[in-house]
Design goal:
Length: about 425
């Protein structure tokens, strides 16, 4: 568990202390294992000495302490710590909310390699951390943008593509981290509402294969452990009342929601990806993690039975599947745990990659110039998007109202549940 996340949760605990039920919900969240986002060069050192955020070494040391505390009869047990590697130059090329600090035009790729990846790799390689299992989720949204957002009027993505910025940056990261035995790399592969269409998945298989092959001289596809889906998104694991059949996905019927995308949920997406990647030459060890931090969709608006119209029975209540910013009516999803699905042994874990309560982007439409971290207003986070909550701070900042909404709408519910990550508390998934 990340002590910095726990401190944010403690702030919310203060704010709800007059309500016993909210206090209980927040107490549950204090035990969530969440990923640490290395979202800028300064995140490596942190600023703990001056009361600021923990750095990479602080986090690894905290993990060692927690691992020791959980030892059984003096024997250390496997212990996982999760990081998101997220600082490519010209980051978030198809949107504005999370543009980062590095620009390719300003030597960003060189800085990414030497001041960011090299430093991370050096620290992770320290023998002191050999007992930890270090999970890395690599550069959310970046390569998926190369697959689908080039040549469609997103000029920042066109530039990054022409200059090969993301490809060179990600290959560098894969190459460096592939030498570390206890570092498990998961490349971000968006979610079913983005790459789920047959043609997009086909592009993804070819594209990722090429990307990974070019990362090392061996060309091995086995350097990654696998892929991470649904990072920071809201797409459900399972739509309980239907599959992606013609009547559900057709655009001519009662709904436009799935637009002929038969991957109506993350489990369907992962099943298809796994089969197709292995058929394309990836090793049988290829595995997945799914971000379930905010895809629970509990709450009053959740349909509870099959209905004639898919819009009346989908638990994903968004107006459009592409909406990604501080989405209303969402809740905490399946609790993080390893090997969550005995029928799908290729799912390594459900994970809370996006820390629930961290904003996706500011709703303040006047924040049009990037702040020091490259964060600014994206219309997807503003009042013209019916799905976006108002009152949101910049991406990554604590958003108390969203946090409380997520806890209240958790599915499975947080009330009265054991939160042990090793226990299955879940509903059955198909
Ligand atoms: C932000 C990052 C933040 C992450 C996790 C992203 O949207 O850009 O700065 O660390 O979310 O909350």
């Amino acid at each position: 568990m990340d002590p910095d996340y726990q401190a944010k949760v403690a702030m919310s605990a203060q704010m709800v202390r007059s309500s016993a039920s909210d206090t209980a919900l927040v107490a549950a969240a204090a035990k969530f294992p969440t990923a640490v986002w290395l979202d800028r060069i300064a995140a490596i050192d942190g600023a703990k000495a001056t009361g600021g955020a923990m750095g990479l070494v602080d986090h690894l040391n905290a993990a060692l302490t927690q691992q020791k505390a959980a030892a059984v009869g003096g024997v250390l047990q496997p212990f996982t710590i999760q990081f998101v590697v997220y600082d490519l130059p010209d980051r978030d090329c198809a949107a504005l909310a999370s543009n980062g600090e590095l620009l390719s035009a300003n030597d960003g790729l060189k800085r990414y390699k030497t001041e960011y990846i090299d430093r991370i790799a050096e620290i992770l390689a320290r023998p002191a951390y050999a007992s930890l299992r270090i999970v890395t989720v690599i550069e959310p949204d970046s390569y998926p943008n190369m697959l689908t957002n080039v040549g469609v009027g997103k000029t920042a993505c066109d530039t990054v593509n022409t200059k090969g910025v993301y490809v060179e940056g990600i290959r560098y990261t894969l190459n460096k981290l592939s030498t570390l035995k206890n570092v498990y790399m998961y490349l971000d592969i968006a979610h079913s509402g983005w790459l789920g269409w047959d043609n997009n998945r086909a592009k993804a298989i070819t594209g990722f294969k090429d990307l990974i092959k070019g990362a090392t001289t061996s060309g091995s596809l086995g350097i990654i452990r696998g892929f991470a889906t649904n990072t920071a998104n809201y797409t459900p694991l399972d739509e309980p009342y239907f599959d992606g059949t013609d009547d559900v996905v057709s655009t001519g019927g009662t709904t436009q929601f799935y637009e002929w995308n038969r991957a109506v949920d993350e489990l369907t997406f992962v099943d298809k990806l796994r089969t197709e990647f292995v058929a394309a030459g990836f090793p049988q060890t290829l595995s997945f993690i799914i971000d379930t931090s905010r895809n629970g969709w509990g709450g009053a608006k959740r349909p509870t039975a099959k209905a004639a119209d898919v819009d009346d029975m989908r638990i994903d209540r968004r107006a459009h599947r592409g909406n990604w910013c501080n989405v209303k009516d969402t809740g905490i999803g399946e609790r993080p745990r390893a090997a969550p699905d005995s029928k799908r042994t290729y799912i390594d874990a459900f994970a809370f990659v996006k820390p629930p309560g961290d904003s996706d982007g500011t709703s303040d439409s006047s924040a049009t110039s990037p702040n020091a971290d490259g964060k600014r207003f994206d219309p997807m986070c503003g009042s013209t998007n019916v799905d976006a909550l108002s009152g949101a701070p910049h991406a990554g900042s604590w958003f108390h109202n969203q946090f409380m909404m997520l806890l209240r709408n958790a599915s499975p519910s947080l009330t009265g549940q054991s939160l042990s990550i090793n226990k299955t508390t879940s509903k059955k998934v198909k």
